[in-house]
Amino acid sequence: MRFGTGLAALGLSIVAVNASPIVGNVLFPPTRPRTTVSQSLYDTLIFYGRYASTYTTAPCKNPPEGTVVQGFANADPTTEMTLFRDDARKQLIMAFPGTASLQDFVTDLSAQQVPATIAGVNCPECKVHQGVLKSWNAIQPEAQRVLDEALTAYPNYELFLVGHSLGGALTKFAYASLKSQGYDISAAYSYGEFRTGNQAWADYVDGLSGNTDDNQGPYYRVTHADDGVPQVLGPLQGYRHSRSEYWFQKGADGPATTFRCYGQEPSDCNNSQLGIGVAGINAAHIFYPGINVVGCGL
User: Fold this and answer.
1) Where are the domains of the chain?
2) Do 118 and 229 form a contact (C-beta atoms < 8 A)?
3) Strand order through the sheet with 35-36
4) Angle at which helices 166-180 and 199-209 pack, to 10 degrees?
5) Rounded distance, CA 18 to CA 231, Å?
6) Which CATH topology does 5-286 take?
7) Which residues form the signal peptide (predicted)?
């Protein structure tokens, strides 16, 4: 989430919402023990994290070297998407920043589940987070128009999706919507994403990505230390994460402390550490490896 001074003050003045996070080692046994990632994957997780903290009002106003802004979309309620173009890698990167305003914060907390009325998605059993659905449906037409224009101009470029916090939740909706419509998505990297729907929704996204214990898949749900945001809206409220979690246990310490985690709700990764904060927001949420929403270059 990205914070102005007003939102930070608001955060200090309210009581944590949505109940305390549920620590996972009781409710969520892992399907198999976590495993360390390769140096290559670690570097990739760091690299794409930078896009999640790059936007016009951010401390990091410039994307990674060699990247240009291909297009931009915004919509009420204050939802943004930036489409980056990396000519060296031949990639288009659709990036969603996190919470910027009081309206965004309200979106985060609009946690009632409603039917998944998302372009392309056919899942009658799926129930999703009302606030995120409203934000995605507001920006989807313009975001998709910008993307289609770019894909027409650069038909041989790969498509990647990136987001942090509320932007991570929007990344999941974008992935489900675009993938269901037949877009070829090379990978999606979601950082600090909170749960966005019920079991059917988690299973639907896993079905689209093909993520299983035996198949790494293209959807990377990245968490960090005791970040409390991925822990809010728990299963007792009818919410469930999709696969596959990748956990920075101790920050940017390298692949030896960065893990691939198994199952939808593994108890030996982020769920193993109780994340204390206002609505789950704490230092681990703000300072992801590759992401620093109050400074640049970390």
Assistant:
1) 5-286
2) no
3) 35-36, 258-260, 245-248, 219-224, 187-191, 158-164, 91-96, 79-86, 67-75
4) 60
5) 10
6) Rossmann fold (3.40.50)
7) 1-19
